[in-house]
């Protein structure tokens, strides 16, 4: 069977935005504005910044301006207005009715592909990073990639040696001495030890406390932003206590704990340990309303990744898994259970954010995850999942994820209206990252 050919595709400069300066530089205007039709990625941005007029604005929080404008100076949004804006000396752009939104965030993704991470960094990183931008993604959380290369990629994109999304880097940590992800060929989710018959039936050996805590210090010293772990509770095993130690260490060091939990029992254990981010949505077992409310009450955000167990299709229309091998039909129940539990969690009040957990091309993965989300969420829901909620999942809600004065100018212009057709999100025309135009497909 032919397989899909896959192409894969911090420092923040914080500028204080004075309201007085904004008031002096921004004036609402009903007069026609000049239209810039040159390639915006090659356009010099004046010191007075730029204005985007004639846009439908979806602010990522549920707010809508049917015809509005935005003013950007430096790397920040300085005002969001109803009607057009006029800033003397600024570059003025006519959105021509396009929808203006926050730059997209993938809160759980694998970036580096192939068998040789060093070769990927040298030869594939640049086009792969451009592919993320072309799809509208300005921030991506790497949920476990080759350590040396992902840290170098984060540096290169932050310093503009490679034009690409902002990278947040997480490294794997262990909770027990056994019961690691099983399987010989293909994706480990095919052989998930969270599922019977591979799920542990006796306690796994504990790691020494100094090992559990020491691995967090080591990844912190290496420069990682977060510690990622996979929790599969064994009967009477050490996993929950080890995770509590990890949470203590990440809190001490000021980094984050991200926990892969795919069953109800594992999700509840991670919740009790107090992790910072739950990923994958429990898709093995049915949440009760009481359990969903417990998770919501913990105030721990959760990242979607609903599309993992929904078939992709190759060029012969054969169903394939995330690894491009034939789809494992013994996992198909998760394609329904995940969305059902996702909606229960949403109704309970969980902050549910967008993430994919794939290595497929960003545009393909984006469409696939939207398809899965749209089973149980409305356009309005998904826009919030893509915006504010995704930012909360990666603890960057004070910087990105919404269109507000003072936020980083991570912006996309979409040809269409995702409020009425969510798949219009796939029609990205312009992408702005930190106030710089990085894509212009108009």
TrEMBL record:
Keywords annotated in UniProt: Signal
Domain of life where this protein originates: Bacteria
One Gene Ontology MF term: hydrolase activity, acting on carbon-nitrogen (but not peptide) bonds
Species the sequence originates in: SAR86 cluster bacterium
SUPFAM superfamilies: Composite domain of metallo-dependent hydrolases, Metallo-dependent hydrolases
Keyword Signal annotated: yes
Protein name (database record): Amidohydrolase-related domain-containing protein
InterPro entries membership: Amidohydro-rel, Metal-dep_hydrolase_composite, Metal_Hydrolase, Metallo-dep_Hydrolase
């Amino acid at each position: 069977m032919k397989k899909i050919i896959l192409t894969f595709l911090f420092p923040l400069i914080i500028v204080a935005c004075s309201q007085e300066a904004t008031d002096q530089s921004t004036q609402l205007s009903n007069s026609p504005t000049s239209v810039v039709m040159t390639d915006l990625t090659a356009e010099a941005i004046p010191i007075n910044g730029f204005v985007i007029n004639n846009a439908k604005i979806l602010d990522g929080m549920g707010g809508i301006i049917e015809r509005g404008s935005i003013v950007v100076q430096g790397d920040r949004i300085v005002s969001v207005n109803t009607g057009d804006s006029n800033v003397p000396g600024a570059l003025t752009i006519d959105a021509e009715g396009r929808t203006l939104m926050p730059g997209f965030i993938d809160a759980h993704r694998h970036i580096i592909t192939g068998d040789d991470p060093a070769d990927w960094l040298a030869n594939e990183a640049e086009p792969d990073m451009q592919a993320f931008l072309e799809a509208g993604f300005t921030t991506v959380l790497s949920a476990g990639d080759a350590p040396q290369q992902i840290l170098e990629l984060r540096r290169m994109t932050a310093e503009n040696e490679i034009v690409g999304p902002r990278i947040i880097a997480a490294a794997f940590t262990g909770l027990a001495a056994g019961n690691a992800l099983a399987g010989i060929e293909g994706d480990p989710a095919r052989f998930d030890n969270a599922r019977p018959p591979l799920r542990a039936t006796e306690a796994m050996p504990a790691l020494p406390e100094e090992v559990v805590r020491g691995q967090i210090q080591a990844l912190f010293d290496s420069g990682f932003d977060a510690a990622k772990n996979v929790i599969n509770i064994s009967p009477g095993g050490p996993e929950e206590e080890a995770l509590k130690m990890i949470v203590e260490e990440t809190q001490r060091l000021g980094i984050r704990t991200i926990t892969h939990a795919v069953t109800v029992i594992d999700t509840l254990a991670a919740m009790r340990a107090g992790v910072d981010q739950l990923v994958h949505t429990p898709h093995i077992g049915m949440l009760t309303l009481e359990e969903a409310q417990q998770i919501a009450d913990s105030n721990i955000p959760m990242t979607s990744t609903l599309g993992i167990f929904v078939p992709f299709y190759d060029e012969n229309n054969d169903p394939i898994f995330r690894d491009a091998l034939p789809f494992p039909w013994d996992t198909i129940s998760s394609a329904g259970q995940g969305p059902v539990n996702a909606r229960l969690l949403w109704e309970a009040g969980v902050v549910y954010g967008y993430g994919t957990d794939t290595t497929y091309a960003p545009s393909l993965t984006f469409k696939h995850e939207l398809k899965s989300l749209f089973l149980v969420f409305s356009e309005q829901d998904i826009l919030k999942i893509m915006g504010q909620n995704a930012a909360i999942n990666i603890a960057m809600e004070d910087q990105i994820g919404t269109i507000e004065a003072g936020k980083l100018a991570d912006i996309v212009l979409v040809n269409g209206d995702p409020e009425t057709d969510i798949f219009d999100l796939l029609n990205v025309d312009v992408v702005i990252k930190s106030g710089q135009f990085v894509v212009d497909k108009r």
